[in-house]
Amino acid sequence: MAPSESWRKKPQQARSRLTVEAILHAAEALFVTHGYEATTLERIAEKAGVGIGSVYDYFTNKHAIALTLYELTSQQAALDSRKLLIDPGIEDIETNLPKIIRGVYQCYRDHQSILIDLVDEVVELRAAEAYSFERLIYRASFMYLQIYEDRFAQHDLQSAHAYLILMVTSTIKQYIKSAPTQLSEEDFLAHLSRTILSHLLAEPPSPLLLRH
User: Fold this and answer.
1) Are residues 90 and 34 in the same domain?
2) pLDDT tens-digit profile of 54-93?
3) Does residue 29 fall inside a structural domain?
4) What total of structural domains would you count in the chain?
5) Cα(91)–Cα(88) distance, rounded to whole angstroms?
6) Residue 88 and residue 82: Cα distance in Å, rounded?
């Protein structure tokens, strides 16, 4: 679905923008509390304090609201993590890769209700690539790994990149969804960083570099 399909019309006036914000906030709260399928446009309108006609003024259906939430949240997550992903600095990979992993984790955790939970319920959102936070991760991580390509003794750049994307996005999302009490956030991130670095590098990274 193209991004333009998420709107019937975009708000232009301050009052209209406040109405749309109320609709989106209400929808997100209801999606979290009751789930996407159980949430109706009528319930969204009621919680937002607007008439159902006001909802239809801006959105064609519930899916359009979900897509708008996903687009806006992905944009915000990308902005939050852009500097870390695009300009990781001049430190060695043992030092800055754990920082990048932590930054990606923070974005997923801060926006879990949309980037993880809602996407799990509304699988069509995964096709909204133009606003995908994961698209930024995919592109930026490839450029990042190019800097250290000469250290991947047993991996070409493409396989190293595929491994990094799989481990970072899938493992982080699974940890956040399962919220295991026996594995703390700090231990999880440290273990994930060690695992990825040990797999990518010719020599295992020094434990001192990953001490938390």
Assistant:
1) no
2) 999 999 999 999 999 998 998 888 887 777 776 666 678 8
3) yes
4) 2
5) 8
6) 10
